[in-house]
Amino acid sequence: MDEKGLPGRLPERDRPWVMRTYAGHSSAAATNALFRRNLAKGQTGLSVAFDLPTQTGYDPDHELAAGEVGRVGVPVAHLGDMRALFEGIPLADMNTSMTINAPAMWLLALYATVGAEQGADSARFAGTTQNDIIKEYLSRGTYIFPPAASLRLTADVIAYTLREMPRWNPVNICSYHLQEAGATPVQEVGFALATAVAVLDTVRDSGQVPPERMGDVVQRISFFVNAGVRFVEEIAKMRAFGALWDEITRERYGVADPRQRRFRYGVQVNSLGLTEAQPENNVQRIVLEMLGVTLSRDARARAVQLPAWNEALGLPRPWDQQWSLRMQQVLAYESDLLEYPDLFSGSHVMTALVDGIVAGARVELDTVLEMGGVVAAVETGYLKSALVASLADRRRRMEAGSDVVVGVNRFTETEPSPLTAAGAEAIEQVDPAVEAQATAAVREWRAARDGAAVDAALDRLRADAATTTNLMPATLACVRAGVTTGEWAGALRQVFGEYRAPTGLAGAAGSGADVGLATVRDRVAATARELGSGRLRLLVGKPGLDGHSNGAEQIAVRARDAGFEVVYQGIRLTAGQIVAAAVEEDVDLVGLSVLSGSHLAAVPAVLDGLRAAGRSDLPVVVGGIIPAGDAERLRAAGVARVFTPKDFALTGIIDELVTVIREANGLA
């Protein structure tokens, strides 16, 4: 019998998902070369990683950009950079995802302008701008403007693309980072759908889209989700997402066409779940997480991008990205997965799991809506506090061993890994000259343009921002005039202002019956008495533009539970601000958290500042993704301790902080 005719098989293999790797570093030209190599290897879409200055609306020569240029993505400061990024790549034939949020309108305008210069019709452009600002206030931290102004920019992009770029997904409602920030599956679904409701309500109420076209808006809303290693639960989560999305769009927005109500999502599997210890285990984690979003045909991802096995160590090399791409290709082309209808239809186990997540997520969604919507839930700190508390629970389970992480808190005996034997050569290295080159290049760009045209374009942008006018036309005019990323964002900062999101620490729960913490608490109290102070004071600082604050917040919560008085002012601080806070608050210890790889620039700047302020005696510790060689350099510069992801036991870290304070003060 012909194998293809077996009962239960589809008449034809299902179409594979779009296969991407998340890529971008150092410069537009270098990233363009990486894109071309990946496309030649069978990648079917592009996923652009922008560096932190670009994501937060700064040019490479801004003070806050120091040490961050080209490090976690590609710097794009103006139209010339975008031209170089896509040189030789026909945008009309490409499906491009751009992980960009606060300045999403700006980057889309740059992209559309380059496509037009290539002679392409904008109606052919296919791809996605992430453009979900809400989760930036809760996790990644690359927000710029207050929530209401940010949602206005999102709505303007949606209305514009509906008219001019109908194949473009103007927003990716992004639950990915909610999971990394601690969200349970129920919270991830509920909070993400609350964000989707806020976006759709803003579009509907803006008056830019006729009521009869709301179905077209819904059809272009996509989601970007996280897939953890509990892949059965992840399958249920995705099916629950689809069921609730269908319900909301039908009942709240009156979308009658089921094709327009389809839940469309892309995925990256859980990068923060990857481990520095025994990093080879990350390969099987990535495969299992990929299965969670591909096994269920009725809830299968439309696009998948996988991290590399060594992302907990640093920036992946092209070979590492190739390995992740080949994982997707083996599943899609060698296995028989795409030959069958949904494997879970009629499963009592899956139905019960889905029903449970749907019920819980509906409660979370209703709670947020009753508060006045997701903006109110952000501004009151409700959402951030819920995520910090959930992540604290997850960390406690891991420390207690009830949640097993192989190679980290169990089965830690290991042979030396040949994959990491090369040391620093096992990850991509960013040339320190990149930042200087980018700084010189943006200054040359500014000097060569028509200053009057730039001023006129920025004046128009500010004037339109003060009204309800759609800002996309003024933004496109800025692109054509040669305005830079920092100038565009700076003009809108003048109108909208900047925003500081709640840290969420106040609502985080304590550590319960942690026996080890009681001992540390006694040491904290005893040390404070010996120093003649009421309480030990810890400053937790996030220098530079790195907004991934989960680790810093968990340290702050555990230190507070141990009896420290914690000073934490949130993300995106200059070295000068951190030094000023340390001196003014008269702290006993400064703890710096740097996950972007900019530690060799950010940390010495703080050390130099403390010396200049006459506080060279104040001990400094650092935590982050820091290679062994860099850790040695930091210690030689004066850092008392360096903590990396392998140091997962928070209570032990806090105990070590007490030891650092005692050593710095000559206590036995």
UniProtKB/TrEMBL annotation:
One of its GO terms (molecular function) is metal ion binding. CDD domains: MM_CoA_mut_B12_BD. Residues 535-664 form the B12-binding domain. InterPro entries: Acid_CoA_mut_C (IPR006159), Cbl-dep_enz_cat (IPR016176), Cobalamin-bd (IPR006158), Cobalamin-bd_sf (IPR036724), MeMalonylCoA_mutase_a/b_cat (IPR006099), MMCoA_mutase_a_cat (IPR006098). The keyword Iron does not apply. Its cofactor is adenosylcob(III)alamin. Pfam families: B12-binding (PF02310), MM_CoA_mutase (PF01642). Keywords: Cobalamin, Cobalt, Isomerase, Metal-binding. It comes from the Bacteria. Heterodimer of an alpha and a beta chain. Belongs to the methylmalonyl-CoA mutase family. PROSITE patterns: B12_BINDING (PS51332). It comes from Micromonospora costi. This is Protein meaA. Coiled coil: none annotated.
